[in-house]
Each structure stands twice: as structure tokens, then as C-alpha cells.
Amino acid sequence: MVNGLDWVAMVLVIVGGLNWGLVGAFGFDLVAAIFGEMSLISRLVYILVGLAAVYLIYFATKISSQ
């Protein structure tokens, strides 16, 4: 069963993946463009995306054992 935290983590990791795709393909950092280069908010977004990725490691092991 997927709960709210699982969905939030998935959305954050998708946002992070899309952002890295833009950085790799075009050299464009969408998070920095929206919130400012290494501003407090952009750093918080990067931290949340990283935490979401760590959480999804746990989530993947949880669903794979069912």
C-alpha cells in the first residue's frame, strides 16, 4: 500500500531527476532558476530531494519483500 509520504518522495525524486536531466542536457538548473543560485530555498529543495531518494531506497526494499 502506497501512503502519502511515499507519493511525496516519488514526486520529489521525479523533480530531482528532471532537474538533473535539464542540467545534463542543457546546462540549465531549474531549481536555481526558480529559487536562486544556492539560496536557502533551493538548498532546502536539494536536501529534500536527497532525503526522498534515501527514503525510496527503503520503500523499494519494502515493496520488493511483499
Description:
The structure is a single chain. The chain is mainly alpha-helical and 66 residues long. It has one domain (4-64). The chain contains three helices and no strands. Helix 1 (4-26) packs across helix 3. It is elongated, with a radius of gyration of 14 Å.
Keywords:
mainly alpha, transmembrane, 66 residues, transmembrane helix, membrane
Taking the sheet with the most strands, its summary is: none
Low-confidence stretches: none
How many beta-strand runs? 0
Class inferred from helices and paired strands: mainly alpha
Question: Approximately how much beta-strand content do the residues carry?
Answer: under 5%
| Domains, number | 1
Characterize the overall form: elongated
Arithmetic mean of pLDDT: 95
Q: Termini separation (Å)?
A: 10 Å
Secondary-structure element pattern, one letter each: HHH
- How many helices in DSSP terms? 3
Rg for CA atoms: 14 Å
Helix content: over 70%
Transmembrane segments: 7-28, 40-60
Pfam families: DUF378 (PF04070)
Protein name: DUF378 domain-containing protein
Keywords: Membrane, Transmembrane, Transmembrane helix
